[in-house]
Write the structure tokens for this entry.
Amino acid sequence: MRQALSRVGLVGVLIAATIGAGPAWAKTPEPLPPVSVSSLPAEAQQTVRLIHNGGPFPYPKDGIVFGNNERLLPGKARGYYREYTVPTPGSHDRGARRVVCGGTQPRNPDTCYYTADHYASFRRIAQ
């Protein structure tokens, strides 16, 4: 009986804690710190140039839809964001670095973001 009450009590606390907070996925991301293009690694600067020139891109997955599953970027409709690989010297695969851009025109994005840690954090690229 005591164990059952403990579980009910814990469930009640969890429900009460989440009602006011709303679902985690609905959370508005914090403003992302800006970074200038000139402050990015040389490979990221080249990736930004390729995006604005429409390619050619070195990796077949460049330009695919980025789902924003981590919810760190501002919420937009699926298909708004696209991701591009930033080559990592010495890496035998695509590495962890990416530029993610959003907008309806891939060559003229509304905004772009840089991640050096495979989507764990982002910085807004100031154009």
